[in-house]
Design brief:
This protein is 42% helix and 19% strand. By secondary structure, it is of the alpha/beta class. Strands 3-4-2-1-7-8-9-10 form an eight-stranded mixed β-sheet, with helices on both faces. A six-stranded parallel β-sheet has the order 13-12-11-14-15-16, sandwiched between helices. The protein has a two-stranded antiparallel sheet with strand order 5-6. Helix 7 runs parallel beside helix 8 and helix 10 crosses helix 13 (338-355). The protein is globular and about 60 Å long.
Length: 378
């Protein structure tokens, strides 16, 4: 008889409500969706708060262990060992989110014997020297888990790490629940329409080195289309200086915005542009949001989930990475061909409903949890 899990434990270095990046949003949507199917869900993460408390969020429990220090961008918490052990003993399945080297240590140190899966969100790209030190632990960890999930066939095919574990890897695309996004009131739509005009390219995301925004600014020389950048991050000021240096007049940085305003901009924009040029961009949640709102997409071919979301010449345009001339030509084409752009946006939205809803993601994971429980003696 097929058994359904009663309790799932997710483990990752950060989570909602402390942060809401791409992986955090995936965990949030997955935890909320799974809890609505009648399964109890715990999420354990680290928090800088001295005495972090557990909070209930949309049907699941978010637990935080105190972050004691960072080592090479890897959060470490002494109390996490105890909290993980306590929560894991109550769980039927443990769901890890990779990469996070400290997680591997906790996994082995606590010695919990439960079915385990890993969602493999990204290779380790930037810290190559540290990867040489971490690799033996990483390989031991990935060998030890029962199943690995890739978020796109593109990433599984191009990851030198994942090809080693193809015998226990499946693909479950990241999904979003459009109904969970707020409906912007008319006055917010009118406010942004008056401020920004009726036609602009939109970027949403944390402003990091791999997002390729410097390439977008270079591409804008000579055309200076309206570009709206939503988000904040470590290289924001550097990019603002570059805007001045290049003499760009129509680039606006709006900083971090509430979801209501973000949805208003997704509704109003002409196209969502996503110039990430390195494999650190493993999927592209805001690119998927653009598809969800029926916008033509512009992205780079970096062998990751971005080109699983955006199909060249169907849902938008795909250009070589780090190529400002190609990016400029793609922007010009969409700007000058509104009928084709609208058709691409329509196909992007159709692809979202066909492949990328949160319901599909949740159902696929619940089926995987069931299969693991029936294959492994808990």
């Amino acid at each position: 008889m097929s058994r359904k899990p009663k309790r799932i434990l997710h483990f990752y270095r950060t989570a909602f409500p402390d942060t809401m990046g791409g992986i955090e949003q995936v965990i949030h949507q997955l935890a909320a969706g799974t809890s609505h199917s009648g399964i109890e869900v715990d999420v354990l993460s680290l928090s800088p708060d001295k005495e972090p408390k557990s909070v209930e969020i949309n049907g699941y429990w978010s637990h935080r262990a105190h972050l004691d220090f960072q080592l090479a961008s890897t959060g470490v918490s002494w109390s996490a060992f105890r909290q993980f052990s306590q929560l894991a003993k109550k769980a039927d399945v443990i769901h890890y989110h990779f990469p996070w080297p400290f997680m591997d240590v906790v996994h082995f140190a606590t010695g919990i014997k439960k079915p385990t899966i890993v969602t493999y969100h990204s290779d380790i790209i930037r810290q190559k020297e540290l990867l040489c030190i971490y690799r033996p632990l990483m390989n031991r960890f990935l060998r030890s888990v029962d199943h690995i999930v890739a978020t796109s066939p593109n990433y599984r095919a191009t990851s030198q790490v994942m090809v080693r574990y193809s015998d226990k890897t499946s693909i479950i695309p990241i999904g979003l629940d459009k109904a969970s996004y707020p409906q912007p009131p008319r006055d917010r739509l009118e406010y942004w329409r008056e401020r920004l005009g009726g036609k602009f390219f939109l970027f949403i995301g944390v402003i990091r080195y791999y997002k390729g925004l410097h390439i977008l600014l270079q591409a804008s020389q000579g055309i200076d289309f309206p570009i709206v950048i939503v988000g904040a991050g470590p290289i924001e000021q550097q990019l603002k200086v570059e805007v001045v240096r290049l003499g760009l007049q129509k680039v606006q940085f709006l900083g971090f915005l509430p979801d209501e305003d973000k949805v208003a901009l997704l509704t109003l924009c002409y196209s969502v542009i996503f110039p990430s040029h390195l494999r650190s961009e493993a999927f592209g949640i805001s690119l998927l949001e653009g598809a969800m709102y029926g916008k033509p997409l512009v992205s780079s071919e970096i062998g990751t989930g971005t080109t699983f979301i955006n199909i060249a010449n169907e849902t938008g345009l795909v250009v070589p990475p780090s190529d400002p001339i190609a990016l400029r030509e793609a922007m010009q084409y969409l700007w000058q061909h509104p009928e084709q752009a609208a058709m691409m946006g329509k196909k992007a939205e159709e692809r979202y409903w066909r492949l990328f809803t949160a319901e599909q993601m949740v159902n696929s994971y619940v089926d995987l949890y069931k299969n693991l429980m029936n294959l492994i003696d808990v």
